[in-house]
Amino acid sequence: CKDAVNIKVNGLVCDFCARSLEKLFGKREEVSSINVDLDKGNVAVNMKPGQSIDDATLKKLITDSGYNVQTIKRGC
């Protein structure tokens, strides 16, 4: 659970939005899985053990996709 990152995102409205973020993060070798909750506007990214992506990179990945990051929380 220490390898989880929860990101609150504005602008996630459709399944296509969710799939595009899943593809984007799925390409990262640090990421073991991603779960996008459209209803809550939450993106849960699970990192591989010992791996991490810094907040600035996470924010850039999401803002470059056209969404606004509200908060980034690490752990459960």
| Residue fraction in strands | 35-45%
Portion in helices: 25-40%
Alpha-beta content class: alpha+beta
Which overall shape is indicated by the principal axes computed on the Cα atoms? globular
Report the uncertain regions. Answer: none
The Cα radius of gyration reads: 11 Å
The span between the termini is 6 Å
Order of strands in the sheet with the most strands?
2-3-1-4
Q: What is the residue-averaged pLDDT?
A: 93
**Total number of helical segments?**
2
Largest sheet: 4 strands, antiparallel
Q: How many beta strands in the DSSP annotation?
A: 4
Order of SSEs = EHEEHE
Key attributes of the depicted protein:
single chain; 76 residues; alpha+beta; globular
Describe the protein.
The chain is 29% helix and 36% strand. The chain contains two helices and four strands. The chain has a four-stranded antiparallel sheet with strand order 2-3-1-4, covered by helices on one side.
Summarize the structure.
The chain has 76 residues and is an alpha+beta fold. 29% of the residues lie in helices and 36% in strands.
Which helices and strands appear, and what pairs or packs with what?
Blueprint: E1 4-10, H1 15-26, E2 31-37, E3 42-47, H2 55-64, E4 68-74
